[in-house]
């Protein structure tokens, strides 16, 4: 899916058939914001390029989930237009599907591929807390 296709999908969801309600610059901005949201959940997607031209294609995100960017953008447009119920509905759909994708990635069902078809792994180290108090208790035999 390229920027033109996603923009049309956004306009259909937003019922902006005459291209008069929402500006293209806002749609592009919110699609790019959706990319940032994907990168928050999947650190391995931090390298996804933003949309700049109509022919720019969604990269790395599986084709089955690329439409979620449109849901995110529609939600943000509705929120901007103070249509809160519709904004919440679209954002809920986005977050539910994003969570579904996360569980599929964690279970190994979905693998992110770069433009060369090579699997992208999450090389981010896990941050965890150790219990220093109990692990450093000297053990003396009495």
Question: Can you characterise this structure?
Answer:
This protein is an all-alpha fold and 142 residues long. It has one domain (3-135). 49% of the residues lie in helices and 0% in strands. It is built from 5 helices and no strands. It has helices at 3-13, 24-41, 68-80, 84-107, 132-135. Helix 1 (3-13) crosses helix 3 and helix 3 packs antiparallel against helix 4 (84-107).
- Averaging pLDDT over every residue, what do you get? 84
Shape: globular
Straight-line distance between termini? 71 Å
Largest sheet: none
Portion in helices: 40-55%
Beta-strand level of the residues, as a percent range? under 5%
Oligomer: single chain
| Number of helices, counting only DSSP H or I runs of 4 residues or more | 5
- Say how many strands there are: 0
Number of domains in the coordinates? 1
**Cα-atom radius of gyration:** 20 Å
Stretches where pLDDT falls below 50 for ≥5 residues? Answer: none
Helix and strand element order: HHHHH
* Overall SS class: mainly alpha
Provide the descriptors you would attach to this structure in a database record.
single chain; 142 residues; mainly alpha; 49% helix; globular
């Amino acid at each position: 899916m390229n920027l033109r296709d996603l923009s049309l999908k956004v306009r259909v969801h937003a019922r902006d058939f005459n291209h008069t309600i929402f500006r293209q610059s806002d749609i592009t901005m919110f699609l790019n914001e959706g990319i940032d949201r994907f990168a928050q959940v999947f650190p391995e997607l931090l390298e996804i390029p933003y949309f700049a031209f109509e022919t720019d294609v969604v990269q790395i995100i599986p084709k089955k989930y690329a439409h979620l960017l449109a849901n995110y953008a529609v939600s943000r447009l509705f929120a901007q237009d103070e249509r809160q119920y519709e904004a919440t509905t679209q954002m809920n759909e986005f977050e539910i599907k994003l969570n579904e994708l996360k569980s599929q990635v964690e279970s190994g069902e979905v693998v992110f591929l770069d433009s060369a078809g090579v699997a992208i792994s999450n090389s981010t180290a896990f941050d965890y807390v150790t219990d220093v108090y109990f692990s450093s208790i000297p053990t003396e035999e009495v």
